[in-house]
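Tokens as discussed.
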């Protein structure tokens, strides 16, 4: 963990640090990662303070920053975990090259559709469908309600279904 010297802001840190760290440890399930995200969140909060902006609710801003950092972290990890579809050239036995090409084009169209979703909608959809989190877990991770998660997932599913319908009309 990086060290940063904060003397005048110790009351601000003491007031919310344990709560933030508890939230991050529960979300990340990794003490060191939680410590790093907490450090980054406080650094960003301090930079907002130094920019001259007036912050009315430090706790609220701190937790918003932390949730944004978690989302950024998740996106980076998701990109690392998912293979590039263009790298998959091996065909299952018996598949004709035309079938493989059609399958690859279908997958690319679906990935493009997902990529074009609004960021929060895409994040909720990926967390739920690709990472296997429940709606409640996605809601907790994103800092939104279960109802909002359900709406995001439904919107993404409708976009995927519309893409699939377009592709089947072309066949």
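Sequence:
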């Amino acid at each position: 963990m990086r060290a940063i010297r904060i003397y005048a802001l110790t009351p601000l840190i003491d007031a919310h640090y344990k709560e933030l760290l508890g939230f991050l440890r529960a979300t990340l399930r990794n003490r060191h990662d939680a410590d790093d995200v907490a450090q980054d969140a406080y650094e960003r909060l301090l930079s907002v303070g130094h920019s001259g902006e007036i912050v009315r609710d430090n706790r609220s801003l701190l937790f918003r920053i932390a949730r944004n950092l978690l989302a950024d972290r998740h996106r980076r990890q998701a990109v690392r975990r998912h293979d590039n579809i263009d790298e998959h050239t091996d065909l299952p036995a018996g598949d004709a090259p035309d079938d493989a090409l059609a399958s690859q084009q279908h997958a690319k169209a679906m990935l493009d559709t997902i990529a074009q979703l609004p960021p929060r909608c895409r994040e909720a959809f990926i967390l739920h469908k690709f990472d296997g989190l429940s709606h409640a877990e996605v809601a907790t991770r994103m800092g939104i309600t279960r109802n909002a998660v359900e709406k995001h997932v439904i919107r993404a599913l409708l976009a995927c279904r519309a893409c699939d319908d377009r592709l089947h009309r072309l066949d």
